[in-house]
Specification:
The chain is about 70% helix and about 0% strand. It contains eight helices and no strands. The protein is globular and about 60 Å long. It starts with 9 loop residues before the first helix and ends with a helix. The model has no long low-confidence stretch (mean pLDDT about 90). By secondary structure, it is mostly helical. The chain has two domains: about 60 residues; about 160 residues, no CATH class. The longest helix is centred in the C-terminal third of the chain and has 41 residues.
Length: about 240
C-alpha cells in the first residue's frame, strides 16, 4: 500500500486512487478547485487533524482494492477530453434543466417558510448559465487545442496563443463553480431537507448533492490531470527545435 504523506497534494492523492474522492467529500476537503494544496494545508483549512485524514484514507485503501480503481491518469489527453464531454458534460446537460425547474418550484411554493430557497434558486440559476458557457468554451476552444497537442510532433500555433491561456480561464471559472456549490451547501445545511419537506423537496436536495459530487470529480479530472498534461505537452513541443 502506498504511504500517504502530509506533503502529498490532495489532487495527486485522488489522481492516484480516484475513489479517495469520497473520503475527501466526507471530510469536507476540497480536492478539485483546491487540489494543489498539500494534505496538511487542506486539513488546517478544514480545521481537521492531518493524522485523522491519513487514517481515513489508509482505511479506505485497505477496503478498496487498487485493481478496482478507474484509471483516468492513464488515458491519453484526447481520450480524457472525450470522456469528460461524454460523461460529465452529458450529465450536466441532462440534470441542470431538471434541477432548475425544481429549485424554481421550491422557491415559489415553500419560499415563505424557508426564505433561503430564493437565494438557492438564484445561485443555482447563475451557476447553470455559467456552466453552459463554460462547456461550450471547452468543447469549441480548449479541448480541440488539447487534441491537437497530443497529435502533433511540432508545437502548434494557436490563435489564442498558449494553451495555458484558456486553461487559466477555465480554472478561474471552476473556482466560481466551487464557490456556488459551497454556498448552496451552506444555505441548505448540507443539502438536508427540513422535517416538513415534500417529495420534490427531498428529491431536489438529493439531486443537488449528487450534482456537487459529480462536479467535484469533473473539475478534478481537468484541474489535476488534463490541464497539467496539456501544459506540459505544449512546453515539451516548444522546447524541441523545429526542422
Amino acid at each position: 500500500m502506498t504511504m500517504i504523506q502530509f506533503h502529498d497534494t490532495v489532487g495527486s492523492l485522488v489522481t492516484e486512487r480516484p475513489t479517495r474522492a469520497r473520503v475527501f467529500e466526507e471530510l469536507g476537503i476540497d480536492f478539485c478547485c483546491q487540489g494543489r494544496r498539500t494534505l496538511e494545508q487542506a486539513c488546517v483549512d478544514a480545521q481537521l487533524e492531518p493524522a485523522t485524514a491519513i487514517g481515513a484514507l489508509e482505511e479506505h485503501d485497505r477496503r478498496v482494492p487498487a485493481s478496482d480503481e478507474p484509471r483516468f491518469a492513464g488515458m491519453g489527453m484526447a481520450e480524457l477530453a472525450d470522456h469528460i464531454e461524454e460523461v460529465h458534460h452529458g450529465y450536466l446537460r441532462s440534470e441542470l434543466p431538471r434541477i432548475a425547474e425544481w429549485t424554481e418550484k421550491l422557491a415559489r411554493v415553500h419560499g415563505g417558510r424557508h426564505p433561503w430557497l430564493h437565494e438557492l434558486r438564484d445561485t443555482f440559476a447563475s451557476m447553470r448559465t455559467e456552466l453552459d458557457v463554460h462547456m461550450f468554451k471547452e468543447e469549441r476552444i480548449l479541448f480541440p487545442m488539447v487534441r491537437e497537442l497530443e497529435g502533433s510532433m511540432d508545437a502548434p500555433v494557436f490563435h489564442r496563443g498558449s494553451v495555458r491561456n484558456p486553461i487559466s480561464v477555465m480554472e478561474h471559472e471552476h473556482d466560481d463553480t466551487g464557490a456556488a456549490l459551497a454556498r448552496m451547501r451552506e444555505l441548505s445545511s448540507g443539502f438536508t431537507p427540513p422535517a416538513d419537506a415534500c417529495n420534490t423537496f427531498r428529491a431536489t436536495m438529493a439531486a443537488l448533492e449528487e450534482l456537487e459530487r459529480d462536479l467535484h470529480v469533473h473539475i478534478h479530472k481537468e484541474n489535476s490531470i488534463l490541464f497539467p498534461e496539456a501544459a506540459a505537452r505544449e512546453a515539451e513541443l516548444r522546447a524541441v527545435p523545429v526542422g
